[in-house]
């Protein structure tokens, strides 16, 4: 697991430092700082995830792997999603009422 802290969003509630003090510290004004590079080993996953979920302003995000192109719902292998857009020209097909 790898996390990222957006200090511009942080409002200084301090919940993250309470749940995972090994990964978050508070500066002189009470705003969170990330300790280390954001890499979290499996042993500490639960406490850091609790800090992430309890952050009231969602300043902490988990950085994950990109979705493979084939698994993406709008990948080039799937049909063109623009063909299914509801417009005035096909309103009878979609059952629009005015």
Question: Which overall shape is indicated by the principal axes computed on the Cα atoms?
Answer: elongated
Structural class: alpha+beta
**Beta-strand proportion:** 5-15%
Query: If helices are DSSP runs of H or I spanning 4 or more residues, what is the number of helices?
Result: 3
Instruction: Please report the total strand number as a whole number.
Output: 4
Note poorly predicted spans.
none
Within the largest sheet, what's the order of strands?
1-4
Helical residues, percent: 10-25%
Please outline the major beta sheet. Answer: 2 strands, antiparallel
Query: How would you spell out the order of helices and strands?
Result: EHEEHEH
Average per-residue pLDDT, rounded, comes to: 82
Tell me the Rg in angstroms.
21 Å
Note the gap between the termini.
50 Å
CATH architecture of the domain at 2-63: 2-Layer Sandwich
CATH topology value of the domain at 2-63: Alpha-Beta Plaits
Q: CATH top level of the domain at 2-63?
A: Alpha Beta
Task: Name a few traits of the molecule.
98 residues, alpha+beta, Alpha-Beta Plaits, two-stranded antiparallel sheet, two-stranded antiparallel ribbon, 3 helices, 4 strands, 14% strand, elongated
List the helices and strands and how they pair.
Blueprint: E1 2-5, H1 15-19, E2 24-26, E3 32-34, H2 45-54, E4 60-63, H3 91-94
Antiparallel strand pairs: 1-4, 2-3
